[in-house]
Design goal:
The chain is of the alpha+beta class. α6 crosses α9, α7 crosses α9 and α10 packs antiparallel against α11. The protein has two domains: about 90 residues, 2-Layer Sandwich (Phosphorylase Kinase, domain 1), CATH 3.30.200.20; about 220 residues, Aminoglycoside 3'-phosphotransferase, Chain: A, domain 2 (Alpha-Beta Complex). Helices cover about 50% and strands about 15% of the residues. The radius of gyration is 21 Å and the shape is globular. It comes from Parasutterella secunda.
Length: about 325
């Protein structure tokens, strides 16, 4: 048994009597892309809880605690925090179940489930206010974009950009940032996707993995929801669901553009920032953290980048670069 396991068992033992826990029932529940691990433990009547184990040398549970209170303020379903040890990195949470949207989505229920996710998103954004969450500012957006050349291009593809290619990428990054930063700001979950949503009998989805929430561009979470890391939708469905979100957001007073065409471009360009970031993150997870499974989904994101870059003349240089990085014959020119 590792030192960390001993710490977790000791902490659980200190609260076991209060919750009538049977510690012999503890078993792994899941892991995520970070350093957190989750365990399921039952009480002696069969009720289960989730234990978040977040090693303090890598993780801080305080953001999770803060954002949980915001989601509860919005009257949305998130894991309730029964017990917490900030100094040790342990939380005892509600068990929302074992199935996520990713496990259950199909052609028959997609419109209903994604509609509920959109309703919850609007509800979350409706309580937004500045000064509560960290700003999704230029510095953070830029750091995220730079993961793409550092980890995907250099480490994964083994390419070194020449001076001209670097200049092209810099221009494209600046154009993306200018669009992102010009958008109105709301609370942003930052990973609002089917893997982090859970179907609940009570109606709206259970929401997970929100500790990295920020105050940033209004289009980010809907772009995240409909351009997912692990599941792709046809363009008609994506546009239809985006329109549904846009209409509900406008009715709720959320600061989306009055013109859907403008908002659609915002969603696409915000999604592009996210896709480039995730390509870098997935490569980093493989080469730095030894988590190989994420690399299998990089072609999906290359395709997302290609689709968006192809639609806008201002981004044709990015399409040109992607073709070179991926060793494809360039099919399009590029302009400034």
């Amino acid at each position: 048994m590792t030192e960390r396991q001993n710490e977790r068992h000791e902490w659980l033992g200190s609260i076991a009597e209060r919750y009538n826990l049977d510690l012999s029932t503890e078993k792994p529940a899941s892991t995520d892309a970070g350093f957190r691990s989750y365990f399921r433990v039952a009480d002696r009547d069969g009720k289960t809880y989730i234990v978040m184990d977040a090693p303090t040398d890598h993780e801080d549970v305080r953001p999770f605690i803060c954002v949980t209170s915001l989601f509860e303020k919005a009257k949305l379903t998130v894991p309730h925090i029964y017990e917490q040890s900030v100094e040790k990195g342990f939380l005892l949470l509600t068990d929302l179940g074992e199935k996520t949207y990713l496990n259950v989505l199909n052609e028959d229920n997609a419109r209903e489930l994604m509609g509920k996710a959109i309703d919850a998103l609007v509800q979350w954004q409706s309580i937004s206010e500045p000064g509560v969450l960290p700003e999704y500012d230029r510095a953070l957006l830029t750091r995220e974009l730079n993961l793409f050349p550092e980890w995907y291009i250099s480490k994964h593809r083994g390419k070194t950009l020449d001076e001209r290619q670097s200049a092209l990428l810099k221009v494209c990054f600046e154009r993306i940032l200018q669009n992102n930063l010009a958008q109105a700001k709301v609370f942003v979950h930052r990973d609002y996707m089917p893997r982090n949503l859970m179907p609940m009998a009570s109606g709206g989805p259970g929401i997970l993995d929100y500790q990295d929430a920020v105050y940033g561009p209004v289009s980010y979470d809907i772009a995240s929801l409909l351009r997912d890391a692990f599941i792709s939708w046809n363009e008609t469905f994506v546009i239809d669901m985006t329109i549904r979100y846009w209409e509900k957001a406008r009715s709720a007073g959320i600061p989306v553009p009055e013109d859907f065409g403008i908002f659609w471009k915002d969603v696409e360009w915000m999604g592009l920032q996210r896709h480039l970031k995730i390509l870098g993150i997935f490569a980093r997870l493989n080469y730095r953290d030894g988590k190989e499974k994420y690399l299998a989904d990089t072609p999906r994101f290359i395709n997302y980048v290609r689709q968006t870059a192809h639609r806008y003349d201002e981004l044709k240089a990015l399409l040109f670069l992607i073709d070179q990085i991926e060793d494809c014959v360039p099919k399009y020119g590029y302009t400034f």
